[in-house]
Design brief:
Largest sheet: 9 strands, mixed
CATH topology of the largest domain: Alpha-Beta Plaits
Helix content: 10-25%
Mean pLDDT: 92
Shape: elongated
CATH superfamily of the largest domain: Pseudouridine synthase I, catalytic domain, N-terminal subdomain
CATH architecture of the largest domain: 2-Layer Sandwich
Number of strands: 17
Strand content: 25-35%
Low-confidence stretches: none
Number of helices: 6
Distance between the termini: 19 Å
CATH class of the largest domain: Alpha Beta
Radius of gyration: 20 Å
Oligomer: single chain
Structural class: alpha+beta
Length: 240
């Protein structure tokens, strides 16, 4: 199920805010009934009409993308910065990223036009694991890594249990490469977790999303998810 204004926006009728205006003005029908209340949710089986015209239901598409550095995980930017959908101009569907990576963070991110699928993977209760590799400007001790694994308080709330592994260290430069696996997706979470143990991140890359990896992709490249991968992600999320 997905909010009505989001469905209208994804169909290319109007922006999210304008879609809300269309609803409150009584210009939207769901299954023949006028809906004026915001927050109503609809499924792919519901007939949605705007100004008496049924909205087109796009064929669902799913992509795995290697996000380059200095690219926004967004579909547009009022400051003219590069956005993730700049790399999908030949794709006719109105896709959007599932979750986000920081502007300067690289790595694996999924895009789709399937709202139910996106919500399934983003909701923290489904515990979909994301694995990051960070270069940090300090060498974390076993005790510090244990703090990350046990859960650490950032922004007044404690993170869930995680997995942390020291990959390598440079004693001369006092830097290290650390792998961290989490299943939440709070704003700047990975960077804040490392800051909390006094190991600031200087470079960050997401290497895995559940069982998916970047494989042979280079920054700026993408591929469609295979049918069995889509079903596996759905099944994994629903079983957790």
């Amino acid at each position: 199920m997905e909010r009505l204004q989001k469905v209208i926006a994804h169909a290319g009728i109007a922006s999210r805010r304008k879609s809300e205006d269309l609803i409150t003005q009584g210009k939207v029908k769901v299954n023949g009934e006028v809906v004026k209340t915001l927050g109503v949710k609809v499924s792919s089986k519901d007939l949605v009409e705007v100004n008496g015209i049924p909205i087109d239901k796009e064929h669902p598409v799913y992509f795995l993308f290697y996000k380059p550095k200095n690219t926004l995980s967004a579909v547009s930017d009022d400051r003219g910065r590069p956005v993730i959908t700049d790399y999908f101009k030949e794709i006719p569907e109105r896709i959007y990223p599932i979750g986000r990576l920081d502007f300067d963070t690289t790595g694996l991110i999924l895009l789709t036009n399937d709202g139910e699928f996106a919500n399934l993977l983003m909701h923290p209760k489904y515990q979909v694991e994301k694995t990051y590799v960070a270069k940090v400007s300090a060498i974390p001790t076993k005790q510090q890594l244990y703090k990350l694994e046990k859960g650490i308080v950032i922004d007044g709330k404690k993170t869930s249990k995680a997995k942390a592994r020291l990959i390598s260290q440079d004693n001369k430069k006092n830097t290290a490469i650390v792998e961290l696996t989490i299943h939440e997706g709070w704003n700047h979470q990975v960077k804040k977790m490392f800051e909390a143990i006094n190991c600031p991140v200087t470079k960050l890359k997401r290497e895995k999303f559940s069982f998916l990896t970047l494989e042979k992709l280079q920054p700026g490249m993408y591929r469609e998810l295979k049918s069995f991968e889509i079903e596996k992600l759905k099944k994994f999320a629903q079983e957790n």
